[in-house]
Design goal:
The chain is 44% helix and 12% strand. It is α/β, with parallel strands linked by helices. It has a single domain, classed as TIM Barrel (Alpha-Beta Barrel), CATH 3.20.20. The strands form two sheets. The chain has a seven-stranded parallel sheet. It has a three-stranded antiparallel sheet with strand order 2-3-4. It is globular and about 60 Å long. 38% of the residues are buried. The model has no long low-confidence stretch (mean pLDDT 96).
């Protein structure tokens, strides 16, 4: 489960613990962090809106409404010469891996994940900006640069698996929108699929499950993801066409596990406690009818406007009551006096 920083702070105040402890006390079985370009987006926290940082890829990020947003793309408007001279941050990989050190205390009790996303298409959009990246792909001639982007993602995945020994490798690109894919399935198959397969194969070689993350409507390429060796699909945005969880389970559940599916657009922020409990219970029952293959999670970051009672109602259906959560927080406080 991922919580917006504002949501985490509200829960932390209620539980009387630091925000960094919220996810584990709220029952997260998976502990993971980012070693790819999601780290400068999610892992670097600024105190005030307007504060900025520049990452190893040359992107400039600015905090806006609590989230880091890209305000400068390093290759936007760049010439062919600029593309040829651009260097992906292979030399920064040892530093990028250091974020995994924070997970060491959880290794004995939690499932450890290593997030290297975005890997191919989405990383391209971050380097050029979405509109220019799409235009360049449509015009052609980007194969060599896409290979270089993929080479970096493969190297990062290999280093993460070899040095950090995660329990799963988290990959992906946001290729889906609210109504359909951002690029046609045919273009994705022609430009991205084989390159993304190279990244997935790193996890397969190391004998660990591979997760693929993409927001939005991605049903047309789910068979491709399965053929590539993906084990888990996240986050199952159930409000998008073709992404109804029970339907996905029925069609693909023999070959693919799912993580997500609890609606963060309408159900969690606007539903009643009874509705949240009923829908969450139905989701769990449908997704585990064959005995497993499902990890309960929200379909996106849990937003600050989400009533706290609804968050507890969702977790209650997974067997984690409000009382259990507050007891865990009290235990944490008693054993970490002076740390909060």
């Amino acid at each position: 489960m991922w919580y917006h920083p504002g949501t985490a702070c509200a829960l932390a105040e209620a539980l009387e613990v630091p925000p960094g402890q919220v996810a584990t006390l709220m029952g997260n079985d998976v502990c993971q962090t980012w070693i790819g370009n999601n780290f400068p987006m999610e892992g670097i926290q600024h105190e005030h809106d307007g504060e900025r940082h520049t990452d190893a890829w040359g992107l400039v990020w600015e905090r806006q409404n609590g989230f880091n947003q890209i305000v400068s793309y390093p290759l936007a408007g760049g010439s062919d010469e600029a593309l040829a001279q651009y260097t992906l941050p292979h030399g920064s990989i040892p530093e990028l891996l250091r974020s995994m050190e924070a997970l060491a205390p959880f290794r004995a009790t939690h499932f450890i994940g290593c997030d290297i996303s975005p890997c191919v298409f989405e990383l391209l959009t971050r380097l050029f900006g979405m509109e220019e990246a799409m235009l360049r792909l449509a015009e052609g001639g980007m194969e060599a640069f896409l290979d270089r982007v993929t080479d970096f993602s493969v190297a990062l995945a290999e280093a993460g698996c070899r040095q950090c020994r995660p329990d799963w490798l988290w990959t992906g690109d946001d290729i889906g929108g609210q109504q359909g894919m951002m690029l046609s399935p045919e273009m994705w198959r022609g430009m991205v699929r084989a390159r993304m397969r190279r990244v997935v194969e790193v996890g397969r070689r190391h004998g660990i499950p591979v997760v693929y993350h993409s927001c939005g409507a991605v049903r047309p390429v789910i068979p491709d993801l399965i053929a590539m060796g993906v084990d888990v699909l996240n986050p199952i945005q159930c409000d998008c066409p073709g992404m109804e969880p029970a339907s996905l389970k029925a069609e693909f559940g023999k070959h693919l596990a799912f993580m997500g599916g609890v609606d963060t657009i309408t159900l969690l922020p606007r539903g009643s406690v009874a509705q949240v409990r009923r829908v969450t219970r139905a989701l769990i029952d449908a997704m585990t009818a064959d005995g497993g293959g499902y990890i309960l999670a929200a379909s996106h970051t849990v937003a600050p406007e989400t009533p706290m009672d609804n968050i507890f109602a969702m977790l209650h259906e997974a067997g984690l009551s409000r009382e259990m959560i507050f007891d865990a927080a009290a235990t944490w406080r008693s054993t970490h006096k002076g740390d909060a």
